[in-house]
Model the fold of this input.
Amino acid sequence: MHVTILRKYRFMYSLWWIMDNKNKERGICIMMISPQSYVFKFRDADYKTLIDARTRLIEDLIRFEQNEMDSDRSGNAWMKSPSPEVIYQVKLEYLAALCRFMQQKYNKDYVRGDKALSDER
Done:
């Protein structure tokens, strides 16, 4: 029963739709995917691609944190849904899931395998 509930939760979370307030009448939606679905996109990627994705996530998080510290909520981003706060929280989850995946891939390919990071350049 626990497994069934967990599967149902993952399915519901991956189909989490959020309407853009400005575009409700046009039916334009923004879809927030689950962290597992985000990482799944990188299942066949090389390690350099994973590093680049991690760097982009960190840059986005830092940008939000700097704006939040400056108390700058005047932009149009604060007028739409999902709000920057929600996007920040989701990207934190993406980063955590991506780092777990990177750890597994690094151990498999570079620690136990015969690859070297210098080969990726």
Summary: Confidence is low (pLDDT under 50) at residues 1-6, 8-28.
